[in-house]
Amino acid sequence: MPEILEKPTVWQNIQRVRAEAPLVLNITNYVVMNTTANALLAVGASPVMAHAQEEVEEMAALAKALVINIGTLSAAWIDSMMKAGLAARQKGIPIVLDPVGSGATRFRTETAQALVLNSAPSIIRGNASEIRSLVLAEQSTKGVESVHASEETLEAAQVLSANFGGVVSVSGRTDLIVEGGRTIRILNGHQMMSRVTGMGCTATALTAAFAAVNPSYLTAAANAMAVMGIAGEIAGEHCAGPASFEICFLDALYSIQEADIAHRMKMEIV
Amino acid sequence: MPEILEKPTVWQNIQRVRAEAPLVLNITNYVVMNTTANALLAVGASPVMAHAQEEVEEMAALAKALVINIGTLSAAWIDSMMKAGLAARQKGIPIVLDPVGSGATRFRTETAQALVLNSAPSIIRGNASEIRSLVLAEQSTKGVESVHASEETLEAAQVLSANFGGVVSVSGRTDLIVEGGRTIRILNGHQMMSRVTGMGCTATALTAAFAAVNPSYLTAAANAMAVMGIAGEIAGEHCAGPASFEICFLDALYSIQEADIAHRMKMEIV
Amino acid sequence: MPEILEKPTVWQNIQRVRAEAPLVLNITNYVVMNTTANALLAVGASPVMAHAQEEVEEMAALAKALVINIGTLSAAWIDSMMKAGLAARQKGIPIVLDPVGSGATRFRTETAQALVLNSAPSIIRGNASEIRSLVLAEQSTKGVESVHASEETLEAAQVLSANFGGVVSVSGRTDLIVEGGRTIRILNGHQMMSRVTGMGCTATALTAAFAAVNPSYLTAAANAMAVMGIAGEIAGEHCAGPASFEICFLDALYSIQEADIAHRMKMEIV
Hints:
Three copies of one chain form a homotrimer. Chain A is α/β, with parallel strands linked by helices. Chain A starts with 9 loop residues before the first helix and ends with a strand. In chain A, helix 4 links the parallel strand 3 and strand 4 (95-98). The first copy, chain A, has helices at residues 10-20, 33-43, 56-62, 75-91, 106-119, 128-136, 151-164, 199-212, 217-236, 242-255, 258-264; strands at residues 23-27, 46-49, 65-69, 95-98, 123-127, 167-171, 175-179, 182-186, 267-269. Chain A is globular. In chain A, strands 2-1-3-4-5-6-7-8-9 form a nine-stranded mixed beta sheet, sandwiched between helices. Chain A binds chain C through residues 29-32, 34-35, 71-75, 101, 104-108, 141-145, 195-198, 239-244, 246-247, and chain C through 21, 23, 30, 33-34, 37-38, 41-42, 46-52, 54-55, 58-59, 62, 76, 246-255.
């Protein structure tokens, strides 16, 4: 059904997030909690951060989407991720998994793989090395930042999508969003995004917010990456360095207009 | 004693914080640790963040005020909150409780209620749904952000204050600060404050700093909310979105002058 | 060998960090994780934050330097710090210990002392009261922020350096970097640096990045403090308060030029 995206729905998706302010439950890493909460608020969603086993199921029951991000993983949190995943699945809300650093250590790779199996995420969003690690169990990474998309990555994303039956969203110079035989490429973005920690995690959080109000998770994932890239371009025109870039980026998420999307978006649907 | 506030003491309170740089111990949530530490430094206080059971009593013994904030709660932290609360009580320093998300899950509501009973906070500072949950054990919330004050909220705050015998400070479009039969309303603020994560937690931290150097906890709580609102108004005049708003807000906390308070403050004492 | 620093190597050190983007593993505190990750990215390094016992050894094996920072300590994290320290030692990469708050509580002082004994850090970087606590087991501190260097501090740094056989870097109005009989003083900096949380932790992270690509840990530690001070001076010329200062500071870390160093650096080698 490639026609789904013939008329892009980015602006409609933003308007729905702003109108409905969906509650997004984040079980995420310490480094980005503040940033992703602010990004969700900026785009119009309502963030909650919680991780206690005693409450994640109740929180998931209140939420419209769940983010599971393993960036600063420890054993106790895995149980909460599993519990919240199960509750979210039963409720039928989208689950977005960010396998941060998968491939870098056995602990992360195995946890990410277990989360894919047990939580049945709707969308997996990561960088190329993280996505490849879920297919090939590769044990190599250069940190948790960056890695460019390539044909090899596209193949890995397609295999992963087929294996677990959901959407795979790979960030990089070109973003790839894959589901079944369909592929969307986003060519927006700015080089400064690789110099700010947690931009990938922010992409994951926005993906969840968009999926909360969009029945097509493929479209939601693509729309979120387009907004990331466009906000990055707007920010890149005004900043003096990575810290002011981050401020401008979050401000742009808040003030982004239909015209920004119309004039800037570079989305290719294959 | 309604005359206490006939001549507002906001500026004197700021000056005392700047002069004495009181040490404020924060057992608080991961999302706002950085922000509230910076807000405390900006206003002139000395923040410490610590949560280990092995040290919270010693830290409380060094501190001039204690913040207990349950925003990203887990079981191990509750013990530390209880221990620190007891040590603070024995020392006679103010304890400010922020029941973040109380009402959203049973775990938070019950923990908040247990902290009220066992730690005997001097001041409880929350939004309307959190405050109501401590009176009515309501099980409903829309996330941890926002909720407007109302007559129902005022009543809940009065009941809560009477029940536990301390000050209740409710943030909202109009802030309500209640103790016994007395009510103070703060009409300052800016709509952008609801688009930045942790503004409530910052209000709690500032309340603790003000209470550290002010024998009247009612006055301290009102003064802190006035400073929050005034700094928010100053920031709102200069910002392009929520991220630049937060920067301007923290800068305003640092540079706020007597004239800003004189010209802007809207405090009603009932 | 005082000639090591006759021709300062600050600019060369920055260029090597930018060229090699060394992976720096941070087992650090919740308050500064975001800030120090961004500071490492700004200066050109690759940060990883991880703390699980299951993975810190593997992460250390991938890294080019290790930061151990006890700012928000708890028991489970100490084991990970010890494990990572041992792995880093076996691999021969630099370990930089930041004994945040040592001297404030017995738990921190004893943990910091145990880490010095068991992990054999290459560099200990702290403020004056923290450094003195490792020599004198002093039990006093005014929070975790600031304290000025003095002759007493220099003596403590020299004793500590002799005792554990590594570099001691003390931040303050004048920074002192000591190893064996050698002392370097850095006179750069800006008063606003004491009004932003985590500037000391950022200094520690940059010290690790510089040590990752510099065989002289004394020089690396001095170069990092010089860059901190110079970026602080650049930021201080443009900021309206502590929050905008922090943004300008991080931007300056990213954009610092050879001429900034040549014109501003005040390094005294004794």
